[in-house]
Specification:
Keywords: Methyltransferase, Transferase
Strand content: 15-25%
CATH superfamily of the largest domain: Vaccinia Virus protein VP39
Helix content: 40-55%
Domain DNA methylase adenine-specific: 86-286
Strand order of the largest sheet: 3-2-1-4-5-7-6-8
Number of strands: 8
GO molecular function, one term: N-methyltransferase activity
InterPro entries: DNA_methylase_A-5, DNA_Protect_Modify, S-AdoMet-dep_Ade-MeTrfase_prd, SAM-dependent_MTases_sf, YtxK-like_N
Protein name: Site-specific DNA-methyltransferase (Adenine-specific)
Radius of gyration: 20 Å
Bound molecules: S-adenosylmethionine
CATH topology of the largest domain: Rossmann fold
């Protein structure tokens, strides 16, 4: 017998393949079509009391299949291994909070944000911003099937956002140059020598939309503090926030060399809080090394205490 996750994948896969072959559409457009069938109750997978993670993972498998066929690096879904680790940190650092507002300004398919939301207890209300039509449709349909309290905005996240400051920002940032020089001029982190880095501008925009004392969890290029524009980024972070942790992931998680990312955890300054005593610098060991993983999590516990 198939698990709920397999049933969901098989259902979406069959419908998407049919649409791809019959309608001259892409597989991902087929995924949107199948999720629409499911949401409108016209046709749905046969499921046995699925939980939210089974639904998320079933949809994620189909989107991954579609993304293998054609997708740019910067549009790729955040891998589950990373999403789960990010969720672990957020869960540990928000223990005891009954209500949380969360923003992902580069939402993509929503996979990272939904992974985090599924892991957190208590009430959550979320906001997602995404510029790409197809990805935000996937995120919207997945959010509906997961019955998430989420508001979505299809727009350039570096333009003004109608979103009140949140408790947490979590985002797998798009990396590279931001082409809109006019918009970037309004940012402290714009570059006068070359085009500005989109990932730096996203950090600044996120800082604006988080409450004082709130945390920001970014997936950033491993070399973020070694680039030409890094000194400005240092200045910005020093002025508005505190670095809490920089965590490197094992290279084996990433498909291509040069795409390695780290998790950068920041806190927005607040008059009633003090800077963290110690910045956590750690490297996640290879996931197959159980002893090393246990040691890693122990190190995190000690740091947190
Ligand atoms: N976490 C996402 C997921 O699990 O699917 C993946 C995020 S992906 C690495 C980065 C996303 O940023 C892409 O979906 C891309 O379309 C989006 N993006 C790039 N520039 C943007 C902009 N200026 N405003 C809003 N979204 C943008």
């Amino acid at each position: 017998m198939q698990t709920n996750m397999e049933q969901i994948f098989t259902f979406i896969d069959q419908e998407s393949t049919f649409i791809e072959e019959q309608e001259n559409a892409t597989y991902l457009e087929g995924v949107i079509y199948s999720l629409e069938l499911w949401l409108s109750d016209k046709k749905a997978p046969v499921l046995n009391n699925p939980d939210k993670e089974e639904i998320r993972k079933g949809i994620q498998l189909a989107i991954l299949k579609g993304m293998k066929k054609a997708v740019q690096v910067n549009h790729q879904m955040t891998p589950d291994a990373i999403g789960l680790l990010v969720s672990y940190f957020i869960k540990e650092m928000t223990k005891g909070k009954k209500e949380l507002s969360i923003l992902d300004p580069a939402l993509g398919t929503g996979n990272l944000l939904y992974t985090v939301m599924n892991m957190l207890d208590g009430e959550k209300n979320a906001f997602g911003v995404e510029i790409d039509d197809l990805l935000i449709q996937l995120a919207s349909q997945t959010g509906e099937l997961l019955e998430c309290d989420i508001q979505l905005f299809r727009q350039d996240a570096l333009k003004p956002l109608l979103i009140d400051p949140v408790d947490i920002v979590v985002s797998d940032l798009p990396v590279g140059y931001y082409p809109d020089n006019e918009t970037s001029k309004d940012f402290f982190l714009h570059s006068t020598e070359e085009m500005s880095y989109a990932h730096h501008l996203f950090i600044e925009q996120s800082m604006k939309h988080v409450k004082p004392g709130g945390h920001l969890y970014f997936l950033v290029p491993e070399t973020i503090f070694e680039s030409k524009q890094a000194s400005n980024l240092h200045k910005f972070i020093k002025e508005y926030g505190w670095i809490e942790a920089v965590i490197q992931f094992p290279a084996s998680i990433f498909k291509t060399k040069g795409q390695e990312k780290s998790l950068l955890i920041l806190q927005k300054k607040s008059d009633v809080l003090k800077a963290p005593r110690e910045v956590l610098l750690a490297k996640v060991p290879n996931m197959s090394n159980k002893t090393a993983l246990e040691l890693f999590f122990r190190k995190i516990d000690i740091w947190r205490e």
